[in-house]
Design a protein that fits this description.
The protein has eight helices and eight strands. The two termini are about 30 Å apart. It has an eight-stranded parallel barrel, surrounded by six helices. The protein is about 40% helix and about 15% strand. The chain has helices at about 20-25, 45-55, 75-90, 110-120, 135-145, 165-175, 190-200, 220-230; strands spanning about 10-15, 30-35, 60-65, 95-100, 125, 150-155, 180-185, 205. The model has no long low-confidence stretch (mean pLDDT about 95). The chain is of the alpha/beta class and about 230 residues long. The protein has one domain: Copper homeostasis (CutC) domain (TIM Barrel).
Length: about 230
């Protein structure tokens, strides 16, 4: 099914702790990616955090399904754990899920990812930045589309989304509106205007962390939102 682009640009905030989620909601974030462990790039969050967020806010929350830090190659036991996490977070009203499983040779693990998509049911799934570690990104793109993912979170295989903007544009062109792209990786108010000019998409992704504390900065979120929707 084609993904229809929206004229309104939205901001997904990666929240590695409960306070970040509260700040993101208060600042007007369009969506929360809820996870923990900033240094690892994000692993699955505490269940209690989602439960409380769903009680106090209507902002959509996508939950990271990642059982540990490190690579994106998982054992059968870890995949079963990921399925169970999806089941548990679904019961607590998660609005979607974020995950990505690769094979040892850098391909998308179709069998394992499909199990998680089936477990998620009608809830949308984002293939996260494991995409940027695939051996053949265009083959990976087709596999991800065929499995039924709704979004791909990517920096365009570069350190930042701004550096990867041209490659993101090529991916978007090849996808032919069959999937949506979320531009993430080093996205901040100081560079979002240039990124939007180079790569236009519906959702941009930021942690909005600006200081030593690993907490999303409300003013940074507001600045980004003001720039992407002037």
């Amino acid at each position: 099914m084609n993904q229809k682009p929206s004229n309104i640009k939205k901001l997904e905030v990666a929240c590695f702790n409960f306070q970040s989620a509260l700040n993101a909601i208060a600042a007007g974030a369009s969506r929360i990616e809820l996870c923990s462990d900033y240094k690892s790039g994000g692993i699955s969050p505490d269940l209690e955090e989602l439960t409380i967020l769903k009680e106090i806010s209507s902002v959509p929350v996508y939950v990271m399904i990642r059982p540990r830090r490190g690579d994106f190659i998982y054992s059968s036991a870890e995949i079963k754990k990921m399925q169970e996490l999806i089941k548990i977070f679904t019961d607590c009203r998660s609005d979607g899920f974020v995950f990505g499983i690769l094979t040892p040779d850098g391909k998308v693990d179709i069998e394992a990812n499909s199990k998680l998509i089936i477990e998620a049911g009608k809830l949308p799934c984002t293939f996260h930045r494991a995409f940027d570690h695939t051996a053949e990104p265009f083959d990976a793109l087709e596999d991800i589309i065929q499995m039924g993912f709704k979004n791909i979170l990517s920096s365009g295989r570069q350190k930042t989304a701004l550096l990867g903007a041209d490659f993101l544009s090529e991916l978007k062109k090849r996808a032919k509106n069959k999937i949506s792209f979320i531009a993430g990786g080093g996205v901040r108010s100081k560079n979002i205007d240039i990124l939007v000019q180079k790569f236009e998409t519906e959702f941009y992704h930021t942690s909005a962390i600006t200081g030593n504390k690993i907490i999303a900065n409300m003013e940074e979120i507001k600045k980004i939102l003001a720039i992407i929707n002037p």
